[in-house]
Amino acid sequence: MSGSTDCCCIVCINTSEVGIIEFLGEFQSYAQPGMNFFCCPFAYLADVVSLRIQQLDVQCETKTMDNVFVNVVVSVQYQVQKDKVGEAYYSLSRPESQIRAYVFDTVRSVIPTMELDQAYESNEEVASAVKQALKETMDDFGYVIIQALITDLTPDQKVKDAMNQINASRRLKDANAEKAEADKIQMVKSAEADAESKYLSGVGVAKQRKALVDGLRDSIMEFSGDVDGATPKDVIDLLLLTQYFDMLKDVGQHPLTNTVFLPQDSGSGAVRDGMLQAQSMRR
């Protein structure tokens, strides 16, 4: 057009981004994703604001109620609100610093009210407090807080070593208790098995002796009936003599038997046997 000093400029904005168009330093409009036209050089693209979700990891040191220093890492996920791009761009020059400051303030006000073990168990409570504090503040600046997570909570190395030692001692104590209980059960079972074995052995011996007595009674009755004039005492004496000879036979066949002394009624025989026994012991 003749006499015109205006030029048409073209700018392309990526998806999930919004451009800030200014005219002579004053906000004019937003450049949406795609191809945008504006008059230059008076109008220009000042900046591009991302609408993507961003994450900021904040590390801070604080002290628990039981005087243990811990390092806490909080991961904050935030995003620029699409309808508040202007507030997000013009209100805060460094939103990361603002978020980091509120995380520091919240963590250092919540963790000191807890002991170390409680702090480990209350990660969600701390994260919820951080998210709530940021949400109330950053919403006015055009930012929405999507999530806040406690990704790490680490005490001093000396405290970690002490905790590991305590846990190891507790596990060793539990293991010893379990072993003692197992030994106790084994001893009880062994005693029960031994008692049952002795009971069964006693029953067997009783049955054996009963059979012997029954056999002896039958033998006495048969012998007394077959031999005229034989009394039960004669039969018993005969059986005892037979068992006596069987005993001498078994003793003589033992590999460790060297000398067998047979008792006699005479006094001289007893003296002689005593001397022979003494000589045998000296060998």
Automatic annotation (TrEMBL):
SUPFAM superfamilies referenced in this protein's UniProt entry, alphabetically: Band 7/SPFH domain
Gene3D superfamilies for the chain: Band 7 domain
Stretches assigned to the Band domain: 8-167
Recorded superkingdom: Eukaryota
A Pfam family that the UniProt record links to this protein: Band_7
Record field: transmembrane: none
Protein name: Band 7 domain-containing protein
Organism of derivation: Rhizochromulina marina
